[in-house]
Amino acid sequence: MPFPSFICHTHTGVSVVSDQAIFLGVDGGQSSTMALVGDASGRVIGSGAAGPCNHVASAAEGREKLARVVRECVTAALYQAGLAADDVVFEAACFGMSGGAEDKQDVLSAAVPARRILVTHDAAIALTGATAGRPGVITIAGTGSIAYGRDATGRERRAGGWGYVFGDEGGAFDIVRQATRAMLRQHEGGGAPTALTPLLLEATHCSDANQMLHLFYTADWPRSRVARLAPLVDQAGNAGDEVALTILDRAAQSLAELALGICSGLFPDHHEVPLSWIGGVFESPRILDRFHQLCQAQAQCAPPRYDPVAGALLSAYAMAGLHPELITS
Question: Could you tell me if 314 and 292 lie in one domain?
């Protein structure tokens, strides 16, 4: 039985969305790029993955890389859906991009044919996925950290996300930075003994704190690689190391402060604001439990309903006036 047609509004007036319409959501990150393709009923019919979408610089090389990576993941998703990329014009496409939407609209419009295109930031699609498009707040803690919220009127607010020099408290890089500082204080003789020292030295194949610190300043150890050491702090905390437990609790406190700042700013007259979370830092049971404890009086904490790339797909549907439940099986 064919899918029904759907009514949506465009700048030219009212139009009918065909039951053959195809929608696209893309999550463009610094580690990978994901695409989901859905039909007019909300059924996900294809997915694809490609490499990172780096920030677009003025150089043509950066713009070409962005277009190439996006086309690669979209083509893969269409192939899984049994569709040829050259034959598809999307009814609507949403791109949630790490680093924001600036300077990417023209590149993406040329790379992917679509009747409607929305280019936004990755926190927006993460929230849309987490709440299935409803108002709420999301805290994201991967290498860095940020909180983002949107209310029923469309007002938005963010906290954090200022980068490793001036922000990103509670992110994985910051957790490892605090662990390294504790290790250095022990090395200097003024800090408490901590199990973090042997764990970090073993993981980096270093003989002492001085060697490890110099290693972290080299190109071989970018922030993303340093951040991947964060689970060692959990390991030490699980063994009862007080220094590690303090670092984990401080990370949870920082993340809760970001979230609650958004809650009070956007929803001052409401209790139990929908609040979700995403990112590798929340794989720490200690951090997640403490985050819940700190937020539960003001927020209704729940895990994300969908992931960010699904949030991008939902945003594409919304541009056409559709709000389906995603069907993933």
Answer: no
